[in-house]
Amino acid sequence: MFVGHFAASVAAKVAQPRLPFWACVGAAQLLDIGWGSLVIAGIEKLRLNPALPGSPLDLYFMPYTHSLPMALLWSLLAGLLAVRLWGRIGWWIGAVVFSHWLADLLVHRPDLPLGLFNPKVGLGLWNLPVLEMIVEMGLLGLAMCLWIARRKQARLGARPATGWYVAMLALAVVNAIPGDPPSPADMGMLALFGYGVAIAVALLVDRADRRA
User: Fold this and answer.
1) How far apart are CA 140 and CA 8, in angstroms?
2) At what angle do helices 68-86 and 91-107 cross, to 10 degrees?
3) Domain count, the chain
4) Parent domain of 9
5) 50 close to 42: Cβ distance less than 8 angstroms
6) CA separation (Å) from 117 to 66, 78, 106, 168, 195?
7) Nearest to 133 by CA among 162, 172, 82
8) Is the four-CA dihedral 26, 113, 103, 186 of positive or negative sign?
9) For residue 143, how many other CB atoms are within 10 A of its CB?
10) Structure pTM?
11) From the first residue on, what is the mean pLDDT of each consecutive set of 10 residues in the chain (212 residues)?
């Protein structure tokens, strides 16, 4: 799952409009931002296997970002930081961080450690790529409908939110383009680039809303 994670970002923004959207977007991918950084550093490991159905990722070692205990820890730390910045509504940021692990549980093959290393779980929706994409885009699309309705109630234009959504769809299309698998380090860098784009465009949404 890639852009589907952002459904939680949008849902948090709908529930708590005072939260900056860039923080909601970054929170949804915080675990993967850490993962990409640790893959580049050679600490967490993956293999790319084009023979696998759906995603070619064989994520065989990522205990520090995607194990259940560490996902809970990162969610708690992010929530505490967000509370310091934005008050009690900051706990929504922690919830968005943890939503990433829950969404991964749905789509990943068994590669998410319940302990720090084992046993590993995953319901494997990646093995049904068409259904996985329907679920992913459906969740984000539903969240966007709720957000645009909320924006209209607040007399905010739909264009900034729609522009961010179109940018995410473009990233999803680029991510789905077939080609030779990159190296693990390149995979980590590509992931960080994609998340950086998502956060940067979210900052533009926040800027447009402040002007409005």
Assistant:
1) 8
2) 150
3) 1
4) 3-211
5) no
6) 10, 22, 19, 32, 26
7) 172
8) positive
9) 21
10) 0.94
11) 90 97 98 97 91 87 98 98 97 98 96 95 93 92 96 93 95 78 87 95 96 83
